[in-house]
Fold SIS domain-containing protein.
Amino acid sequence: MSEAGARMSAEIAEQPSVFDAVLARRAELAEVAALAAARRPRFALLAARGSSDHAALYAKYLIEVLLNLPAGLVSPSTTTLYGAEPDLEGVLHVTVSQSGGSPDLVEATKAARGRGALTIAVTNTPDSPLSAVAEHSVHIGAGEELAVAATKTYSATLLTLYLLVDAARGGSGESVAGLGELAAQTLADSADGVAAAVERYRSVERVVTTGRGYSSATAAEAALKLAETSYLGARSYSGADLLHGPVAAIDSSTGVVAVTSRGRGGEAMHDVLAAVRDRGADVLAVGSAAGDVPADHRIELPATAEEVAPILEILPLQRLALGLALARGGDPDQPRGLSKVTRTR
């Protein structure tokens, strides 16, 4: 029997080399992006579940900000359960799925293509049912992921989506050049900070994660990782939404993980965290702007373009989830009640 958390730990460590492999295929991704741009879609829809849903949220920000194109997240059940048949002529429909095997995503993608959408599947399983029904399929190329908790497939999906959107706007991928090296630096330099955070939070039962803009996706993914590996009561809120009510439930027994990278999203978190600290919460700030916001503990990361930051932000938070699971006596490679592929309809 392998050591507890060995698979998750190994796959977290693989991410720098995975990023290098994804970047080496930029030209291939740019071809798909060019096909999509040539169709001049009137708006974009993104369909996903679980960790891939958080990657889709990241893509939504990329599409709206970098392409100035309206984008929304699809509810597959409107098709699979309710039989809705909207007119999708001229729509870009992107389905994100690590496994490519969830029946609802396959059915929704097939239906969207039949109703006129340009469908693109982004998956780590190129021979999956999802790839078979989409007009175009993009392979994430993260290699087989054995741990139940998605780590390298999540970050590789973010990078793949960034390269697609960047190519669609005519970019050259300049902002992610050398990202594999930055990821290796991030994992090495954040190790002590993560270990300290594990000690701070190993006894808490409630954690709130928060971020704004692009980093909203990181906060959502961090909450999922903490919940599924450490069984913590973890909730994610946009920094803006946090002040609209949920802040009332925050007190000195709450751990708050704030994702704050340089840029407009990070700047908008300053007042949010000041209010949270006033309520006595223990605040861990993670990101390239961690030193600029009110916090009790900080994990500072290398600075990048704001739209690239989520690809690095999630790395120490994956390690935090791993460390907390082990510190609390669990095995994150075998979370209770979970399997690698979740089939929903």
User: Anything to note?
Assistant: The first strand starts at residue 43 and ends at 48. The chain has a mean pLDDT of 93. The chain has 15 helices and ten strands. The two ends are 34 Å apart (CA to CA).
